[in-house]
Amino acid sequence: MTIIKQQDFIDSIADALQYISYYHPEDFIHSLANAYEKEISPAAKDAIGQILINSRMCAEGHRPLCQDTGIVVVFLEVGMNVQWDTSRTLDELVNEGVHNAYMNTTNPLRASIVTDPSGTRNNTGDNTPAVIHSKIVAGNKVNITVAAKGGGSENKSKLVMLNPSDDIAQWVLDTLPGMGAGWCPPGVLGIGIGGTAEKAMLLAKESLMSVIDIHELKARGPQTSLEELRLDIYTRVNKLGIGAQGLGGLTTVLDVKILDYPTHAASKPVAMIPNCAATRHIHFTLDGSGAANLQPPSLKSWPQVTWEAGASSRRVNLDEIKPKDVQSWKPGETLLLNGRIFTGRDAAHKRLVELIANNEALPAGLDFNGRFIYYVGPVDAVNDEVIGPAGPTTATRMDKFTDTLLAKTGLLGMIGKAERGSIAIESIKNHKAVYLIATGGAAYLVSKAIKSAKIIAFPELGMEAIHEFMVEDMPITVAVDSQGQSIHTLGPKEWRIKISDIK
Fold first, then answer.
1. Is the distance from CB of 456 to CB of 343 less than 8 angstroms?
2. pLDDT digits (tens, 9 = 90+) for 165-209
3. Does a cis peptide bond (omega within 30 degrees of 0) precede residue 186?
4. Residues 6 or more apart in contact with residue 20 via CB below 8 angstroms
5. Which domains does the chain have, with CATH numbers?
6. What are the distances in angstroms from CA 46 to CA 42, 116, 154, 292, 489?
7. Which of 1, 32, 318, 392 could form a cystine bridge with 417, CB 3.0-4.6 A?
8. Cβ-proximal residues to 441 (8 Å cutoff; 6+ apart), any chain
9. pLDDT tens digits, one per residue of 87-118
């Protein structure tokens, strides 16, 4: 009889979450490096390069790959012959491990979980509770998969109840472009087919926990109908030209994973969940001999990639910029930002708009006139850091607040990741403002451009408090210009044509 000790289990969960916060899976690194080598879109290659550099920096510095350190998802397979040396429930043990990992003082992880999701949305402070899936299996071991799923990719999850005769690949092709770039491509698509609605979603999530092996599958050829479907979707999705960060390019997905399950004769449930460029998961087994021994990957796994601003990059002094200056910026242009910017996410925007609606003054020191706001919720700093990893969050969540801030505060521009919706783009055009993007999945790299940081307003919001950053040569790309032209429309359109010509 295998006996699993309470502390071994807790320590293993905590160690796994720390591990995946700064180590990409090696299969992901190899696949991303391959995509980097073959990419011919300058914008996409630059974005992939930043993600690879960020990944190596995090592996060396043991700091989070992304400022969004995820909602914890744990898959447990408990052998029937396992005995537990504890009086506590499995959920309690998992959540203590999560608490310990996220409150680790040497590498604190961002607390993103809120209670009362339809109401007050109060942050739990330690990223608990986790989402836990358990099943009893034969054997005398406990198999554990730990993942930390970012909100940007999780929010793009899709579920459809197709007719039995409907084409799954075509549904994916029809659906994926509407998901935008908020899931930070290039990544992996997880697809679940069959069962019931909730089973299909679980299958899609589980599929993302497996090793990237699409190139091996291509080399040997498909042997099952699911393998044929994987290759079909992989090939057709990459022909869409969406590319890294939605900028247009050759690689949108690194792999397509599919799991299926028997279903009702009248049904064909299909779920699709993307994994982002900060894909985080690890598998280990407990056999009663102690806590999991997680071996760090070799730094030789990372390619030697360097990044420097191109000759055409324009340095911008944000403390001196005037409204007329931004009107010369064009979609796809690279800028190096210098000067002061404010930060703000969902909760801060909601409060700002409420103050404006009630004709109340904004907090002292918060003057948006002629300024830029960066959509970010940073990780806490450690040691001599100014701020922890501080990459952009998905901008579309702020779309409904955009017109009010542009019209009422004199805000000049916004910085985030992924595309803007039609309402926000129309507002940007009407107010002659701009929208810029930083690379999602390069949070630690981006943070090195931040030379000072202080909280200006709403400190009680934690990571969603408004900060003032002083930045130096922060690399960004113009995504929507003052005429309302969007790189996320222009880039993929251009590259769909180019890919068609290449193939």
1. no
2. 999 999 999 999 999 999 999 999 999 999 999 999 999 999 999
3. yes
4. 146, 147, 148, 280, 281, 282
5. 1-148+293-307 (no CATH), 151-277 (no CATH), 314-491 (3.20.130.10)
6. 6, 40, 25, 37, 18
7. 392
8. 50, 51, 54, 65, 66, 184, 276, 277, 278, 391
9. 999 999 999 999 999 999 999 999 999 999 99
